[in-house]
C-alpha cells in the first residue's frame, strides 16, 4: 500500500527549519564537516544520550511516571518506541538494537526536539517510533524534527552540490551514503527531492512470489523532484503493486543482483506529451528503488507506451 506523502512543510516552515539547522551546524563548528559530527550537534542542543537501552525492563515506565508526577505532558508513541527525549532532564534514550545509521538519524531527531526553541517546552517526555520518524509523518511536530535531522545530516545543500558534480545515476546517492554516514534510503530520497532534473524514485517492498504473477512488489512510496511533479503531476504511479509484466516490475533485480542497469521507457505528462525517460533500479535487500528521469520530450499522445 502506497504511503501518503504528508511530509511537506510550507515554504515558510521549511525556511525556518533550514535556518535552525544551519544555526546548529555553525554553533557546533560542524558546517562542512563530513560526516556530520552528531555528538557536537547534541551538545549545542543541550541534550545528552544515556547509553542504557531504552527497552531495559522498567526504564520507560519509570521515566514516564516521573514526568507525570511532575505535572508534565507526555507525547506517546503509537507503535514500538525507538527513541525518547526527556526534555526537563535534557536526556536522549535509544533502542540500542538499531543499526548505526538509524541511530544517527534518531539522535538528530531527538536533538531537534531539544534545539528548536518552540518544541522543547511543549512536552516533558517525547516518545518516538518508526511512524514519527517516517518521512511521511502527519504530525507537524515530528515533520519539523525529521526535516531538521535531514538538513543537519546532509549539511543543508552540501549533499546536492556534491551529487551534482557526479553522473546522474542511482549509484551516485548509494555511494554518497557512505560519505555522509546516512542510510541508502535517506540518501536516495535526498538525491531526488532536491534535484533540478525531472526525476522520481519509485520505492517498492521486496518482491514476494505470487502464483500467476510470478512475483508482486508492493508500492511503498514515490518521491518526486519539483520539476517532475510540475511536468507529470502526482498521479502517474497509480498501481498498488508491480509484477514482471509491467515496465516498473521488469526493472526489479532478482536473485543476487543489486541493479537492473539502465533501460528506456516513455512517460506521458499531464498535457498528453510523451517523454523519453531512462530508468534503473537498485536494492540493498530491504527495498527496491527505481530511479526514473526524463531526458527528451517526444510527441503528444494520450497513452503510456513502452519503449
UniProtKB/TrEMBL annotation:
It comes from the Bacteria. It holds the Pfam family Peptidase_M78. Residues 89-183 form the IrrE N-terminal-like domain. This is ImmA/IrrE family metallo-endopeptidase.
Amino acid at each position: 500500500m502506497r504511503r501518503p506523502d504528508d511530509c511537506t512543510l510550507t515554504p515558510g516552515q521549511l525556511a525556518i527549519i533550514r535556518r535552525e539547522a544551519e544555526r546548529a551546524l555553525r554553533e557546533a563548528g560542524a558546517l562542512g564537516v563530513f560526516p556530520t559530527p552528531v555528538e557536537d550537534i547534541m551538545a549545542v542542543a543541550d541534550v545528552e544520550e544515556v547509553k542504557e537501552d531504552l527497552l531495559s525492563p522498567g526504564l520507560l515506565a519509570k521515566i514516564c511516571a516521573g514526568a507525570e508526577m511532575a505535572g508534565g505532558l507526555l507525547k506517546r508513541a503509537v507503535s514500538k518506541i525507538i527513541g525518547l527525549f526527556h526534555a526537563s532532564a535534557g536526556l536522549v534514550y535509544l533502542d540500542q538494537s538499531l543499526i548505526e545509521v538509524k541511530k544517527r538519524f534518531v539522535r538528530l531527531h531527538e536533538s531537534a526536539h531539544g534545539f528548536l526553541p518552540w518544541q522543547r517546552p511543549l512536552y516533558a517526555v517525547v516518545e518516538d517510533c518508526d511512524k514519527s520518524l517516517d518521512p511521511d509523518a502527519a504530525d507537524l511536530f515530528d515533520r519539523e524534527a525529521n526535516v531538521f535531522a535531514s538538513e543537519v545530516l546532509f549539511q543543508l545543500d552540501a549533499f546536492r552540490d556534491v551529487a551534482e558534480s557526479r553522473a546522474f545515476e542511482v549509484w551516485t546517492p548509494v555511494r554518497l551514503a557512505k560519505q555522509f554516514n546516512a542510510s541508502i534510503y535517506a540518501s536516495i530520497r535526498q538525491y531526488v527531492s532536491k534535484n533540478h532534473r525531472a526525476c522520481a524514485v519509485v520505492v517498492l517492498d521486496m518482491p514476494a512470489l505470487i502464483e500467476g504473477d510470478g512475483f508482486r512488489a508492493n508500492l511503498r512510496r514515490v518521491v518526486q523532484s519539483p520539476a517532475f511533479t510540475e511536468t507529470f503531476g502526482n498521479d502517474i504511479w497509480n498501481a498498488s503493486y508491480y509484477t514482471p509484466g509491467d515496465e516498473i516490475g521488469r526493472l526489479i533485480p532478482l536473485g543476487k543482483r543489486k541493479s537492473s542497469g539502465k533501460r528506456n521507457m516513455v512517460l506521458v505528462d499531464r498535457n498528453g506529451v510523451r517523454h523519453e525517460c531512462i530508468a534503473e533500479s537498485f536494492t540493498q535487500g530491504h527495498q527496491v528503488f527505481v530511479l526514473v528521469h526524463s531526458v527528451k520530450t517526444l510527441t503528444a499522445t494520450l497513452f503510456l507506451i513502452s519503449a
